[in-house]
Amino acid sequence: MGNLRRLVLDVLKPLEPSIVEMAQLLADVEGVDGVNISIYEIDRRVENAKITIEGHDLRFEEIGRLIGENGGAIHSIDEVAAGKVLIEDVTTAQD
Hints:
Blueprint: E1 4-14, H1 19-27, E2 32-42, E3 46-55, H2 60-69, E4 73-82
Antiparallel strand pairs: 1-3, 1-4, 2-3
């Protein structure tokens, strides 16, 4: 089976841990090479975050467990890439 290389997750998380702390926790997971977290909505006690994780052999179950242990919930998996190379999604406007 091809290795997972990229996950883009829509996550509802509490304000704590901060996105800095969450990114550091996720970056420490074996197989993870990089993490990007963007907040697109904030409420009084929660944030909606888009979490992008790239690596050479991502372990979805472990990533999901870590998010859950820190009070987060994965709402959706918005993108997945697997295999030997990453294929960038190219969207171009045609005139």
